[in-house]
């Protein structure tokens, strides 16, 4: 991994930051930094990736936008690189310090400022945990809409910065669709507020450049967002298929007919999918939620379509359990306080989440299985989320040691991600780029990357805002 921007804090800078946020919100010693980054906040740990444990030179926890602006300005003027930090659950290394950067943790900017039941909007500071916000909105008969596996740990700011997709993304899409307006502290410390309106054709919609920019263009401090009415009815149905192909056909048929569930999850599960002798099955879960009448109508139509392809129905007990336990994996991974890509001494595990044109899914799956077989890698899961475009896979590799198995896996993943790009797809549909995929940004965007670089250089000419992430040229 490339090291960028070496920095150590000058005593005057330390003094200035301490005067802005107070001593209780500023940590420069190793023990203090580690404690803050691992501290459990209402049993919610901030997770730092085990393999690339950060070496921040300081952690600052602003409580207000004015404090955040003062801190960012002071760091920028002193030429010190900084990393915005939400819940630390990002999977792409977006919150890693690639050198002795300063961590600007949003944990204390966690206030819900307004909920408007009639307008169905809310205003929050960016460090609010999604799960806390969900509970608060439910009190006003609203739902957040963005419901990722990691909702008990991730923040609204981190989710906007990664343009995340959650379990209700079938109908609602990514979190981008919910953002009405943003307050952002630019690298210079200047505070901008984009207009929080439903529709505007008065010039460029500036909030869009911060959504999905992974903290590289500024610190999101506040968001005004759309909420959704608490559904009158939620129905979950599930089916088993003989194989992935039949499940895939059912998904395409639903899409063709315009049956759009709130959530769609097609999952091919076998110990090793490259080996057809392994026992396993393909399951489809559909969730319909909304007004009673529309839920009933959609469910009826979906049942009619899917019965042509399915082998059997999944019992109501099992489908209810699937939905009730949808966040469990995050609790297992994040609740334990560590996140590993290792499964043993000589084995590695990783995943891909590519966005493909619907007609490229079959050929991509085939390539995935062929390549895995050639290199002796196990494909343990394949699936589609929310429709015929978002394709994911989990892979597992063994080797003489961890480095060997990891290299094998990374080689295959890079090949597949590039293959998705050549098929007109995108290498990632919801977790961002971070450091993990930065080397593939050129093949992802072609000459459009020059325009992205120009935007980055205009907003952050010194390259101090989350360096080494998203923009390949932000690495020397
Ligand atoms: C088990 C597990 C399950 C997951 N499931 C999902 C899922 O279903 N859907 C999904 O989309 N993601 C999922 N993720 C990924 C992750 O939870 C999301 O990307 C989440 O939105 C990150 O939020 P965070 O607050 O933890 O951000 P962080 O990890 O803290 O930060 C992510 C990026 O955003 C930047 N950032 C954070 N806060 C701000 C801010 N206020 N202003 C500017 N930049 C900021 C950071 O610098 C970093 O680049 C999962 C992760 C795990 C570990």
TrEMBL record:
The lineage of its organism: unclassified sequences, environmental samples. GO terms for biological process: lactate catabolic process. It holds the Pfam family FAD-oxidase_C. PROSITE patterns: FAD_PCMH (PS51387). The keyword Flavoprotein applies. One of its GO terms (molecular function) is FAD binding. The keyword Chloroplast does not apply. Its cofactor is FAD. Keywords: FAD, Flavoprotein, Oxidoreductase. It comes from uncultured marine microorganism HF4000_ANIW141A21. This is Putative FAD binding domain protein. InterPro entries: FAD-bd_oxidored_4_C, FAD-bd_PCMH, FAD-bd_PCMH-like_sf, FAD-bd_PCMH_sub2, FAD-linked_Oxase-like_C, Oxid_FAD_bind_N, Vanillyl_alc_oxidase_C-sub2. Residues 52-230 form the FAD-binding PCMH-type domain.
